[in-house]
Amino acid sequence: MADLSALKADVEEETTVVQSVVTLLDGLSAAVADLKTKVESPEAQKAIDDLDASVRSNRQALADAVAKNTPAA
User: Maximum Cα–Cα distance for the chain, whole Å?
Assistant: First the structure.
């Protein structure tokens, strides 16, 4: 049987990590949106679009992991 206090500590640590990742992704999304307003060349636009795609991919990977590990009600 799992040690309840250890399991609780693991869940609390995981929650902190998830909240940090959400904060990071939100900040990156805001930075990318800001850059989009300042783009001056096609090369810069491509780099910004690539960054945006990476942030969206990371966000989706996190959402997929949460959905995969959330039991059906």
Answer: 60
46/29 Cα distance (integer angstroms): 16
Amino acid occupying residue 12: E
pLDDT digit of tens for each residue in the chain (73 aa)? 678 888 888 888 888 988 998 899 899 999 999 998 998 899 999 999 999 999 999 889 988 988 898 877 6
Q: What is the pTM of this model?
A: 0.70
Q: Are 71 and 41 in contact (CB under 8 A)?
A: no
d(CA 26, CA 28): 5
